[in-house]
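User: Teach me something about this protein's shape.
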Amino acid sequence: MNANPDSPPKVSEASAEYLRGLAPLQPSPQDQLDFLTSIQRVFDEGEFTATYKFALLVALTELAVERGADENRPLLLRTQWIAEKFAELYWPQTVQYSTGAAGTMPAILAQNLGKTARVVTVLTNLRLSTGASSVAAARRSEAWASALREIDATVRTQPLKYLQNVGGTSIPFLYRFTEESGCIELQPGVAFNLRRFQGLIHQIARAGWVRHVRENPRNGGVIGEAGDLEAFMFGLARASLEPARDFLAKLQSRRCFYCKESIGAAGEVDHFVPWSKYPRDLAHNFVLAHAACNRSKSDMLAGLAHLEHWCQRNAEYGETIGGELGERGFLVDSECSLVVARWAYRQAVGTGAHAWTMSARLEPIGPEYLAALR
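Assistant: First, the predicted structure itself:
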C-alpha cells in the first residue's frame, strides 16, 4: 500500500498522453465493440471458482459511474474503494438464507467451491461483533477499519489479480495493477465504456453471480428447487425501504413527491433515479410517492420539474436527510447521489430518451436537465 493513502498515485504514461492531448476524447465505435467482446470473453472463458469476479465487475462499473467521466482518459481507483463496494455487495449475504421448503435448512450461502469466502467471513464477524443491521451502521463502528483492511487484502490477492485471466492468458484490457500499490488504473476508455454499458454489465454479472450460487453443490440443501435468490442476495425487496417511509412523509408534509396530492397513511418509497438504472439504496435518492405515481413512473427518469424539485430538496434538507436516514441504516452520500443523477440524465440525453412527468405523459430529456444538475 502507499505510505500515505490520501496522496495521489503516480500518473501513468497513458494518463500523461491524454493530458497532453495525444489521445482521442472518446473511444471509437470499434473500440467500444472490442471492449464488449473482451467482457464477453471474461464471462465465457474466465474461470469462476468463486463469486468475487462478478462482484469486482459490478464494483468497477459503479466506481466508473461515481468517479469517472465520459472521456477516453485512464482512471485511477484505490483498492480501498473497491473493498468498500465489496462490503456493500456482500453484506446482505451474511445472514442465513431460507426458503422454508421441505428438505432445506437455513444457512449462509456458499460463495465458492472451497472453504467459506474470506469476505463473507469478515463481514459476518463484523455483523456479529457490532450488532449492526446494515453496512451503513457497520461503517460507524470501531471495527470497520480493520474489517475493510482485510477485505482490501483479499481483493488485491484474488479477484484483482485473476479477473483478466482469459483462456489461460492474462489480457489486461481493463486495468493495470500491482498487488502492493493499493491502486489500479483503468485503461484508457475503460471508464467510458463501463459507464456507457453499466446496465448491461450489471445485469450479466448479477445473473452470473446468482447462477454460480444456485449451481454450487454446497448450497443444494439450502436453496432447494425454489427461492428468489436475486432479491435475497442484492437487497431488492421493497420492504427494506420501509424504515425511510415515516421520515419522508414528514419531510414532504405527507404529500406525494410527484403529484403533490395528500398521501395519507399510504405511499411507497421510490428511488428517484430508478433502482433498475443504479441499484444502490442511497438516502438522498429516496422520495415518497403514491403507489399509482410510483407504478406509472416505473423505471423511467423523472421529468424536469421533478428533477428541479429533487435538487432543491436535497440542497435545503440534505443534512437532515443524511442524519435521519443514516440513523435508520441507509447509505449516506449526497455527492454520490448527485453524480449518479448527472450520469443517468447525461446517458439519457445521449440516447434521446424521454422522462416521465405524470400519468402517461412523457417529455424529451434535453440539455436543460443537465443544467439543472449543475
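Now, about its shape. Residues 1-9 have pLDDT under 50 and may be disordered. The longest helix spans residues 304-327. If you'd like, I can walk through any region in more detail.
User: That's plenty for now, thanks!
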